[in-house]
Amino acid sequence: MSGDLPLNINIKEPRWDQGTFMGRAQHFFMVTDPRNVLLSSEVLEDARVTVENYRLGIMKPGLTEDQLWRAKYIYDSAFHPDTGEKMLLIGRMSAQVPMNMTITGCMLTFYRTTPAVVFWQWVNQSFNAIVNYTNRSGDAPITVNQLGAAYVSATTGAVITALGLKALTKSLPAIMGRFVPFAAVAAANCINIPFMRQRELKCGIPVTDAEGNRLGESSKAAQQAIVQVVVSRIGMAVPAMAIPPVIMNALEKKAFMKRFPVLNAPVQVGLVGLCLVFATPLCCALFPQKSSMKVSSLEPELQERIRKNNPHITSVYFNKGL
Length: 322
Known about the structure:
Blueprint: H1 21-31, H2 41-55, H3 65-78, H4 96-109, H5 114-134, H6 144-168, H7 174-177, H8 180-196, H9 198-203, E1 205-208, E2 214-218, H10 219-251, H11 255-259, H12 264-284, E3 290-294, H13 300-309, E4 315-319
Antiparallel strand pairs: 1-2, 3-4
């Protein structure tokens, strides 16, 4: 019965303990579940109503705790956490696996010619720009100028890295050329994410105590958050861009692949997808969404303010982003 469901379930936080790797992994397996992309507008709207009504203390008859959590994760997969707006379909976290498997698979397949390298790096960075815009923070919104500058810089960096390494690997074993797209993607992440979040580096991000009370803004925390996100994004690309090239290098020597070269791209895309299904949530779980750092590592003026007003606090917390 709906009356048996308590009204104090904290659906603002993940269902599983975020202090453990397994808890974070379970959370991100739900967040990145590609099946959520297929949900109809009616299902999304029903989840939105269920979640918003529960927060107001209103429950529909027969609602169970499992149904409530399912509605919460459907809601989180489609609606922006700060603005409440429905997000662009291909920019949602649930679209990461199908979109990335297609783009990454094509980058790994069509890497031999310069036009193909330029085209697929451009497609990848265009997709990244959509993801960054869709998941922009409501507390530190991304301007059109910032988005454009990050897009151009990351695309240029990725193309230059890809073409430069492509030229360098001509005299190396053929398999080395297959890893050029990964190097380009890693370089682009190192450019794109700090550029996109430059306002946070200048002005800082909110830091709180363990109860979520805001203590101030810290650029040091922003630096740590951005490093963690860059590492997670590159780590996310490692299995999908390092394992399939090795497998494909062996498969392409087989008679059936030589007879049906048209299978190259579909097989590569499938291998990438298989890797991404597991790599995406596991790499997102490398660092807690709510990260921490010692008060002694903050800016001197913020340290002084915290020690003066809250002398018992030794660590602060912040949202690192995705």
